[in-house]
Amino acid sequence: MPTLIDDFPVLTPVTDEDLCTALRAVTIHVPERWPQGELCRSERVPYPCRLARWGRATIEAAGFTEAQLTQGAPA
User: Fold this and answer.
1) Cross-strand partners of 38
2) Total-model pTM
3) Per residue, what are the HEC states of the chain?
4) How does pLDDT run across 24-73, given as a tens digit for each residue?
5) By the 8 A CB rule, do 61 and 14 touch?
6) Is residue 20 a contact partner of residue 64, using CB atoms and an 8 Å limit?
7) Which of 5, 10, 33, 40 could connect to 49 by a Cys-Cys bridge, CB 3.0–4.6 Å?
């Protein structure tokens, strides 16, 4: 049985470099349907993986909302 590992820390204030890395993390670490359920496309672990959680938390700490992130995204 897998053990739960603590999430990566979100450092504040969020730097531009952290924000770029977080945006890349949430773009790459997305859910994918498998017979076992939703898994991270990149890591094949239950979604959301540590990097996806860190990326979303970092983006929120920078003051952005989910709606702001999805605006302008192709449908």
Assistant:
1) 33
2) 0.82
3) CCCCCCCCCCCCCCCHHHHHHHHHHHHHCCEEEECCEEEECCCCCECCCHHHHHHHHHHHHCCCCHHHHHCCCCC
4) 999 999 999 999 999 999 999 999 999 999 999 999 999 998 778 767 55
5) yes
6) no
7) 40
